[in-house]
Amino acid sequence: MSKAQGKAKQVKGQMKETTGRVTGNRKSQVEGRAEKVEGKIEEAAEKARKNRDR
What is the pTM of this model? Predict the structure, then answer.
């Protein structure tokens, strides 16, 4: 997983969360929020991996 893929997952999650909020779909909101967090974790893991390899 790359840092860019983690960032893309965050953006996708944000869009899903916002769409869920606008439409009143709680399931989409929760899924979007979870996807955002997953993306942040993946991005941080990649950053840590790169710092470790220095």
Answer: 0.83
